[in-house]
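ok, trying the design again with the full structure, not the truncated one.
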């Protein structure tokens, strides 16, 4: 019997860098919100059992055509607390998953070939694995006034994306320690490393772009429609 995998879709962000008028998770591409695109993406895979949508308390989502069990969790005041809220909800169920996938809904461009590759690692997963791509551009460290301070060596440097997949109990316990220690982290791979777990990068498409600024949306739509 294969390992049970659940998915978490994060959609509770405040979009402070995006817009003062709109939450980016509510933006639409081809008529679908970023949240519904994430749910639709995970819904087609039989390897995924349940989908947990982490949302703003006041948001109401309806996904009539989903083939999965959908559960809704209110987000926290930070990404870390939103993730932990979902992990706590999953921890309470009788049949906990072996693994859990964590995904930012602000990343709508995930190729199915990449997701299939990630899911293929489920059976042998003991810690965590996440998408990444080697940095190919020159990297500069700058001062607050954008004056270049240092040229950085890009060898062995990768940018990381979501989805990322983890052993459920280990990522749950790692976040429990992070919340207790009040530590700020950038992604879930870092959460595992905080708890001394070794994690790996899975090479993926470089087009897994995150919607951060309003100016990103036009380019993301173009890429989304081209793949």
């Amino acid at each position: 019997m294969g390992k049970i995998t659940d998915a978490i879709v994060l959609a509770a962000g405040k979009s402070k860098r995006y817009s003062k008028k709109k939450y980016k998770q509510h933006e639409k591409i081809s008529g679908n919100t970023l949240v519904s695109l994430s749910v639709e993406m995970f819904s087609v895979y039989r390897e995924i059992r349940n989908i947990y949508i982490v949302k703003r308390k006041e948001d109401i989502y309806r996904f009539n055509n989903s083939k999965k069990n959908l559960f809704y969790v209110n987000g926290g005041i930070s990404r870390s607390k939103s993730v932990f809220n979902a992990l706590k909800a999953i921890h309470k169920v009788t049949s906990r998953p072996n693994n859990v996938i964590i995904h930012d809904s602000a990343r709508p461009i995930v190729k199915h070939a990449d997701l299939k590759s990630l899911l293929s690692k489920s059976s042998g997963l003991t810690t965590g694995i996440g998408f990444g791509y080697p940095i190919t551009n020159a990297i500069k460290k700058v001062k607050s006034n954008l004056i270049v301070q240092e040229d950085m060596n890009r060898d062995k440097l990768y940018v990381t994306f979501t989805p990322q997949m983890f052993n459920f109990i280990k990522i749950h316990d790692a976040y429990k320690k992070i919340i207790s220690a009040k530590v700020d982290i950038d992604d879930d791979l870092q959460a595992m490393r905080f708890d001394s777990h070794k994690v790996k990068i899975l090479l993926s498409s470089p087009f897994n772009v995150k919607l951060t600024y309003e100016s990103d949306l036009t380019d993301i739509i173009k890429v989304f429609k081209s793949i």
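Keeping the full-length input from now on. The CA atoms of residues 55 and 77 lie 11 Å apart.
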